[in-house]
């Protein structure tokens, strides 16, 4: 029974969130794009020592001061005495006894003496954080700046939900992997496209199997092999009931049970999500290329977010520049450009419209939308910046 589109997203996200894998130490590269599984606490004071903010002269006592020494970044200075001036570099540790720093450009050097206006031109130890202080809460998305902060705070790995491993299985005897479509055969457009969408949605693509021959045995073998190494296997094609649509029988053969089977959305209706007894997921993307992308945005992106401990990806908004019809009792996902105009060549077998789209405008079941109306925009991973 087809479920509502909004419910499908939430169901896929919840299935991922509830079975997100045990967390543990992940390298920065593995952790980026997932969420912190524990609060990030600073492993030292930040800065760990008083640090000069400028290139200048560190001085003690009243001036003028006698030049005596130099402190470069990366060294540990000895204390300085009243009347002494030590040349100091930005980032260098401020010596004990230092009462002020004269910026180089404000200093007057006369032989062995220096004078000028002093200021507290340094960062105190612990000014940014104290050792043990919480910097970021559990559940925070791990972005490039988060990784940078973790390194600054003394870490080389993070307690995180790692990015799920994904694999793609392409079904279809009619598919060509090179050259032009001809003689009843078409170029595989999903093999070159879907792994990048999965990466952009937070997975880590491990490989593609196929095109797989249209026999049940070949389908089952390909599915088993993909399940060996991936947390989430996406398949393309074979979701319907055509003479060589073997996906449902193959799911049965690997003892997978449906999380959802068909969604009340146009295009993309025949998508499905299933789970194996050992907790791996299989997302069945319809064969029509645009419908496959709709399945990615509807079920796979939310699933990958849940598996990484992240919330359901938010929708955006767009203001429609023209009327957009509904699709009866189904949700209509309509391709629109960045100005809210519908895009030509939006048939589910086509990619021409999608290739220049800002995303899918969401027209709710039983409604049609008017020009000027604000509607949700479903982003395409890696596309809708
Ligand atoms: N009797 C019915 N037939 C169909 C219905 C229906 O409701 N009743 N729904 C249509 C819809 S909607 C879709 S979507 C497709 C889904 O079909 P499958 O998931 O079973 O996919 P296939 O039959 O294998 O292929 C459909 C179409 O897509 C082309 N394709 C498949 N894989 C690729 C690829 N990797 N790259 C490029 N093109 C691909 C394939 O050649 C077919 O043209 O079912 C409709 N039928
Ligand atoms: O839903 Mo199909 O996915 O319209 O092409």
From TrEMBL:
Keywords for the protein's UniProt record, in alphabetical order: Magnesium, Metal-binding, Molybdenum, Molybdenum cofactor biosynthesis, Transferase
Catalytic reactions on record: adenylyl-molybdopterin + molybdate = Mo-molybdopterin + AMP + H(+)
Domain of life: Bacteria
Pathway: Cofactor biosynthesis; molybdopterin biosynthesis
InterPro entries the UniProt entry points to: MoaB/Mog-like_dom_sf, MoaB/Mog_dom, MoeA-like, MoeA_C_domain_IV_sf, MoeA_linker/N, MoeA_linker/N_sf
Keyword Metal-binding included in the entry's annotation: yes
Residue intervals of the MoaB/Mog domain: 167-306
Necessary cofactors: Mg(2+)
Function: Catalyzes the insertion of molybdate into adenylated molybdopterin with the concomitant release of AMP.
Name recorded for this polypeptide: Molybdopterin molybdenumtransferase
Species, as recorded: Glycomyces buryatensis
Organism placement in taxonomy: Bacteria, Bacillati, Actinomycetota, Actinomycetes, Glycomycetales
